[in-house]
């Protein structure tokens, strides 16, 4: 009797194991396929992505794919957009991995803001961008530039705080 249960248990376990092994997990993550290394890029891609050359081979595949998509669009950009993109790539290349992660988090938070708050942040950024370089440096040194541009990621809803909503007036910020 004990041997019969043991054999039955082994058969059941083997059957379940084969059934489980044959199907992918329900939460399978589909990764980004491998992307080319720096040496495998075309001459045009290397020229466009030159600011990233030092770090290219250590970038995650998903990041490479995003930069390659930008390189594909680059020839269709206006000259000033191309210069701005090159400047941004140079700035990005100088950031540490921790700083890059922080920038990505800030961007994700920005994308979740309601349109009116996005507009406020854009106006503050424009005001900051128009400052003379000396004033920007002074703000960076005092740490006030981040406060000037910061906005709550996802503000509490008025219903949850018991407050009434008031329109945002950028002139008062």
Automatic annotation (TrEMBL):
Signal sequence, start to end: 1-21
Biased composition range(s): Polar residues: 159-173
Region (Disordered): 128-173
Official protein name in the record: DUF3106 domain-containing protein
Keywords: Signal
Composition-biased stretches (Basic and acidic residues): 133-144
The organism of origin for this protein: Dechloromonas agitata
InterPro entries: DUF3106 (IPR021455)
Keyword GTP-binding attributed: no
């Amino acid at each position: 009797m004990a041997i019969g249960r043991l054999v039955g248990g082994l058969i059941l376990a083997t059957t379940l194991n084969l059934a489980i092994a044959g199907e992918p997990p329900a939460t399978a993550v589909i990764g980004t396929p491998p992307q080319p290394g720096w040496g495998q890029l075309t001459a045009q891609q290397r020229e466009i992505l030159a600011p990233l050359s030092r770090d290219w081979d250590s970038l995650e595949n998903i990041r490479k794919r995003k930069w390659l998509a930008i390189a594909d669009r680059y020839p269709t950009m206006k000259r000033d957009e191309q210069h701005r993109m090159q400047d941004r790539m140079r700035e990005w290349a100088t950031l540490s991995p921790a700083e890059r992660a922080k920038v990505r988090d800030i961007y994700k938070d920005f994308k979740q803001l309601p349109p009116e708050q996005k507009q406020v942040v854009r106006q503050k950024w424009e005001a900051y961008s128009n400052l003379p370089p000396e004033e920007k440096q002074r703000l960076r040194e005092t740490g006030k530039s981040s406060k000037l541009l910061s906005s709550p990621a996802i503000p509490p809803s008025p219903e949850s705080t018991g407050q009434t909503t008031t329109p945002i007036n950028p002139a008062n910020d």
